[in-house]
């Protein structure tokens, strides 16, 4: 996307992150989070998250204009978590994209 001043603006994208806690153990993850916080670089925004009832995985939505920031954040946790990353759009955006074909 181009700004009125002629430079390119990066569009923020949403990512659904599925975090699989190594050995199914949430304790080390929550221990680090309590001690150090989310460890997300500037420009990577936490949106929301849900944890399964067995405390083995977390489903988290993050937003950023730069996928490299997401990779930096993943590197901070990869010793404790295995990650799946899925670019997603909102339901409203999906409905807008589908509307011309209805």
Overview of the structural elements:
By secondary structure, the chain is α+β, with helices and mostly antiparallel strands. It is 28% helix and 32% strand. Strands 2-3-1-4 form a four-stranded antiparallel beta sheet. A hairpin with a 5-residue loop joins strand 2 and strand 3. The protein is globular, with a radius of gyration of 16 Å.
Structural class: alpha+beta
Helical residues, percent: 25-40%
Strand content: 25-35%
Unreliable segments of 5+ consecutive residues: none
* Spatial order of the strands forming the largest sheet: 2-3-1-4
What overall geometry do the principal axes of the alpha carbons give? Answer: globular
Task: Give the second-level CATH assignment, the architecture.
Answer: 2-Layer Sandwich
- Average pLDDT value? 94
Q: Tell me about the largest β-sheet.
A: 4 strands, antiparallel
The number of distinct β-strands equals: 4
CATH class: Alpha Beta
**Helix count from the secondary structure assignment:** 3
CATH H-tier superfamily: Dimeric alpha+beta barrel
What's the gyration radius in Å? Answer: 16 Å
Distance between the termini: 28 Å
What is the name of the CATH topology? Alpha-Beta Plaits
| Count of the separate structural domains | 1
Would you list the SSEs in sequence order as H and E? Answer: EHEEHEH
């Amino acid at each position: 996307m181009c700004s009125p001043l002629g430079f390119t603006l990066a569009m923020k994208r949403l990512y659904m992150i599925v975090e699989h806690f190594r050995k199914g153990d949430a304790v080390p993850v929550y221990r680090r989070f309590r001690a150090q916080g989310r460890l997300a670089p500037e420009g990577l925004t936490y949106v929301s998250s849900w944890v399964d009832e067995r405390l083995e995985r977390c489903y988290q939505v993050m937003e950023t204009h730069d996928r490299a920031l997401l990779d930096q954040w993943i590197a901070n946790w990869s010793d404790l978590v295995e990650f799946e990353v899925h670019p997603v759009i909102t339901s409203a955006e999906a409905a807008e994209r589908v509307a011309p074909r209805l």
